[in-house]
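Translate sequence into structure tokens.
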Amino acid sequence: VEARRWLVIVEEDIDVATAAARLSRLGASAYHVQQAAEKLLKALLVLAGEPFRRTHDLDDLASRLLPVYPQFDQQAEAVRHLSVWGIAYRYPGLEDAPEPLPEIDELERMIDMLTEFAAIAGSLIDGE
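Result follows.
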């Protein structure tokens, strides 16, 4: 099932975000946290048969997700602001004032939340 394939990538991004955080590579960890969140929302949209445009905008994806999965309101709200993590640390010089790196505790909270969210999504995808 296509949604399961998305979820495999989510799990890989969470693993990479965790490893990067342990190495104090906060920018790389933040990037993979954003990627995991993006792909997780897309996996659920695919599962629901909801179309979405090719985007990295987590606010847009969360807005599309909530009408079909309102039970994920807290998780969707938690990731809406992470879109900037997908570019801020990968493209130096795009902004006059660079985006500050997230603190390790924020990264760890997001990784934990996404790990739990992915497990719940996995149960839905697998029909449990």
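Note: DSSP finds five helices and no strands in the chain.
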